[in-house]
Amino acid sequence: MRSGRARRRALSIRGRAYIAGAWEHPTRLAPDKSTAQLHAECAAGALADAGLTHAHVDGYFCAGDATGFGPLSMVDYLGLRPRHVDSTETGGSSYILHVSHAAQAIAAGKCSVALITLAGRPRSEPFAGGPRPGPEAAFESWCGVTTHNGYGMCAARHMHEYSTTPEQLAWIKVAASHHAQHNPHAMLRDVVTVEDVLASPMISDPLRRLDCCVVSDGGGALVVVAPEVARSLSRPLVAVRGAGEAVKGPRGGRGLDLTTSAAGVSGPLAFAEAGVAPADIDYASIYDSFTVTVLIQLEDLGFCAKGEGGRFVADGNLIAGVGRLPFNTDGGGLCSNHPTNRGGITKVIEAVRQLRGEAHPAVQVPDCRLAVATGIGGNLGLRHGAATLILERQ
Predict the structure, then answer these.
(1) Which of 50, 214, 263, 324 could pair with 20 as two cysteines, CB 3.0-4.6 Å apart?
(2) Spatial contact of 19 and 224, defined as CB atoms under 8 Å apart
(3) pLDDT per residue over 200-232, tens digit each?
(4) Which tens digit of pLDDT belongs to each residue from 234-286?
(5) CATH topology classification for 13-124+217-239
(6) Torsion of Cα atoms, 308 then 304 then 206 then 256, to 10°
(7) Which residue ranges in the chain fall short of pLDDT 70?
(8) What's the CA angle centered on 88, arms 86 and 92, to 5 degrees?
(9) Backbone phi, then psi, for 330, in 5-degree steps?
(10) Number of neighbours of residue 305 by Cβ within 10 angstroms
(11) Are 57 and 82 in contact (CB under 8 A)?
(12) 3-state class of 19 per DSSP?
């Protein structure tokens, strides 16, 4: 019989799949396009980037933003003939999770070229779609509990427990804006100051408007392939080295902790599978629906101790070329785009750019070898999911 270590190695996705194609849709407003059309354009862009065609695709992955019956509708619309499909829905963490699921499917021999697409038009159709109400809705919706409220509660609790300040949270937006100025497609390209953030209108105390992500149309796509396919392509090799996923909820009030996220589970799982530590990471793509989302994930991933996030992000420590941990060098959701409520795919795309050396020269991390991409889906203050990837340039 094989040892436990041998069995774990056999089940690991480490080095079993590579990201060969990555493409982000340049639009931020698409009143003249359908959501399905955006998916198709993203698919074509990622496949072209990989040097592959639709005929090579034998695995397809999407989430709740896909139109119709998800993969049933999109496979037909895109003209694919897959032998494996996956439509797991975990909100903003969906597409980071799908890279892991694609790697698992490839490692199991279920497919060899997996296409992952995301697209949405929440700016053009602000009230279209959206998740169904959860089981708590009957007890909470009447008193006005919203996404903003939930994240505001997390920020307020973190400030109460750890003396985190609004100024420290504001530094996350400041860092994102320093990067967005170099992204011609970013919705918000003006560099802002801490004072600008604190002067913006209050949305959900203590979060202000500039603490919140933008709302945009757009999308993106990824192509994950088997090692033998990756070696046949003339693209830099970006390996999926480790992954983790987790779900966290209040459990009827018994597990309510507003200062931690499910990334506290998904992150250590990903780092353990990858065989690296947070100190080894050169670049971080951190899901940024709100500034507090970034701060709590940085703590939970192990970049700093719980309660130290405010000091960690202050004074430009997330700015490329200045700080200790360059993050979201495309401007992220805080400044560039947030298509649908599942914008995690752009986190993987920018990580791939960094590892390939294809980010904007002003924000490119020198000799970028290891990157983390992580996402939160759902409501951080209530139930949510997290997914984390460790990617490596080879």
Answers:
(1) 50
(2) yes
(3) 999 999 999 999 999 999 999 999 999 999 999
(4) 999 999 999 999 999 887 777 689 999 999 999 999 999 999 999 999 999 99
(5) Peroxisomal Thiolase; Chain A, domain 1 (3.40.47)
(6) -100
(7) 1-10, 127-146, 255
(8) 130
(9) -95, -5
(10) 11
(11) yes
(12) strand
Three-class secondary structure assignment of 38-102: HHHHHHHHHHHHHCCCHHHCCEEECCCCCCCCCHHHHHHHHCCCCCEEECCCCHHHHHHHHHHHH
Nearest to 104 by CA among 206, 13, 3: 13
Look at residue 383 in the predicted model and tell me its pLDDT. Answer: 87
CB 263 within 8 A of CB 300: yes
Task: Assign domain 151-214+241-393 one CATH number from 3.20.20.60, 3.40.47.10, 3.40.50.300, 3.20.20.30.
Answer: 3.40.47.10
Rg (CA), the chain: 20
* Runs of H (alpha helix) within 163-317: 166-180, 194-199, 227-232, 263-274, 291-301, 309-313
Contact between 153 and 253 under an 8 Å Cβ cutoff? The reply is: no
* Contact by Cβ (8 Å): 124, 30: yes
239 in Cβ contact with 100 (< 8 Å): no
